[in-house]
Specification:
By secondary structure, the chain is of the alpha+beta class. The chain is built from eight helices and ten strands. The strands form two sheets. Strands 1-4-5-10-6-7-8-9 form an eight-stranded antiparallel β-sheet, with no helix packed on it. A two-stranded antiparallel sheet has the order 2-3. 18% of the residues are buried.
Length: 277
């Protein structure tokens, strides 16, 4: 944990106001000096919300007042403390929020946020899976993994977390099935946003694009003719061709450059192919 937290007991009994006061005192700063520093920040950002008056700071340190996001950001800068650590003082755990986000099921295709604010910080990573794992059954990931280990984020920088977006293919999105299955994660290069009209040898070579529509996201093969963009499904998907005004109704997020795809567990949800008479 961070330096200003000595023990879990202290965190449980010391109020946020007192912790903030201790942070200031350890730096040898008066409330007037904090006010002066905050004025410089507010002026530089041309936003008075970042300003902390002497009276406001005094009240903050002696009451249960909760600062705004702007003022908390100013305290983070002046005290040299991570913004996420200051949020913890008020019971907001960004790591916990991230875990809860991953637990919320989404039926629609959407972008996934991957942040790397601290490359030296280790992340928990599955390093050995249960040898008796049955991929045909739905299960909790925690029960599928036999051993977890901590891996420094810096070691997986080759995944291009900074230069890529990540998307999740919705559980009801069969646009490119069986080439790209529902429940897959895709890596997206936002620098590749121009639809290629070159020839390709196989369907595996054909570029796949991640799109942002007015009310949802989509992922598939694309063609552009004039001011129309056509989203093409896989012939075996039972999905229909969709056309959009371009760029009015659709924005190209980027080209899919990598896929993490599960291989079992969705057969019961596959839509039936239309019957031909």
């Amino acid at each position: 944990m961070t330096g200003y937290y000595s023990t879990a007991v202290q965190r449980a009994f010391v109020k946020p106001a007192e912790r903030l006061r201790r942070l200031r005192l350890r730096l040898g700063m008066t409330t007037r000096e904090v006010e002066e520093q905050s004025q410089r920040i507010a002026d530089a950002l041309a936003n008075a919300e970042f300003y902390l008056s002497n009276a406001w700071l005094t009240k903050l340190e002696n009451t249960d007042r909760v600062p705004s996001i702007h003022k908390l950001a100013t305290l983070s800068v002046i005290y040299g403390v991570k913004y996420s650590d200051l949020l913890l003082l008020f019971g907001i755990d960004l790591e916990l929020i991230g875990k809860r986000q991953s637990e919320v099921p989404h039926q629609q295709t959407h972008l996934v946020t991957v942040k790397n604010d601290d490359p030296d910080k280790p992340i928990v990573f599955p390093i050995r899976f249960d040898p008796g794992l049955n991929l045909n059954r739905t299960n909790l990931l925690s029960r599928m993994v036999e051993q977890w280990g901590e891996v420094p984020i810096a070691l997986i920088e080759h995944l291009s977390l900074r230069n890529s977006h990540y998307g999740f293919i919705g559980l009801q999105d069969f646009t490119l099935y069986p080439l790209l299955r529902p429940g897959s994660f895709v890596q997206i290069d936002p620098r590749l946003r121009k639809i290629q009209s070159l020839r390709w040898r196989t369907e595996f070579d054909r570029p796949v694009y991640f799109l942002e529509l007015r009310d949802r996201y989509a992922c598939g093969w694309c063609e552009v003719q004039g001011n129309k963009l056509t989203l093409l499904p896989h012939p075996l998907s039972a999905c229909t061709i969709k056309r959009f005004e371009f760029p009015g109704e659709v924005e190209i997020v980027g080209q899919v450059t990598g896929v993490a795809m599960r291989l079992a567990g969705i057969d019961t949800a596959i839509p039936r192919l239309p019957k031909h008479h």
